[in-house]
Amino acid sequence: MNIIKRNGSESTFSKNKIIKALMKANDSMNEMDRIPSSQLKKIADTVEQRIVSLNTTVNIEVIQNFIEEELMSGSKSPICEGAKGFFRIGGLMNWRSW
Questions:
Q1: Residue 84 predicted with pLDDT over 90
Q2: Cα–Cα distance for residue pair 98/96, rounded to 1 Å
Q3: Which of 39 and 84 is assigned the larger pLDDT?
Q4: What whole-number distance in Å separates Cα of residue 65 and Cα of residue 50?
Q5: Which of 8, 38, 76, 86 could form a disulfide with 25 if both were Cys (CB 3.0 to 4.6 A apart)?
Q6: What's the confidence (pLDDT) of residue 44?
Q7: How far apart are CA 10 and CA 91, in angstroms?
Q8: Helix (H, G, I), strand (E, B) or coil at 91
Q9: In this structure, what are the phi and psi dihedrals at residue 11, rounded to the nearest 5 degrees?
Q10: Among residues 73, 68, 71, 72, which one has the least CA distance to residue 93?
């Protein structure tokens, strides 16, 4: 399955990139506020399932929205807000490899 990168080119979807970005966002938070890695992997799994269910090529903004929705649906809402801010300011927004 392919995605459309920010520069308009297509690339193969990689759930591992989502996991790495989530872990990077998680690492930027206070240790006691971090989300367990198992939960981050579940988020990535759900995002992947949502993308597959669309049965079309999606752009990175759609993937980012799916990630944010999954983060916000979690029980640790303040933590998820911090991760959401990371993605907007310095995480996925600046990933040129996507």
A1: no
A2: 5
A3: 39
A4: 11
A5: 86
A6: 94
A7: 20
A8: coil
A9: -145, 155
A10: 68
d(CA 61, CA 83): 16
Provide the pLDDT for residue 67.
86
Position 87, amino acid: F
pTM, two decimal places: 0.76
The mean per-residue pLDDT over the stretch 12-37 comes to 85
Q: Which residues pair with 59 in a beta bridge?
A: 4
Percent of the chain with pLDDT over 90: 37
DSSP state letters, 3-61:
EE-TTS-EEE--HHHHHHHHHHHHHTS-GGGPPPHHHHHHHHHHHHHHHHHHTS-EEHH
Q: Could you tell me the two tokens for 25?
A: 């966002």
Bigger pLDDT: 63 vs 29: 63
Cβ atoms of 27 and 82 within 8 Å: the answer is no
Q: Which residue has the tokens 């920010």?
A: 6
User: Nearest Cα to 18, choosing from 66, 55, 58?
Assistant: 66
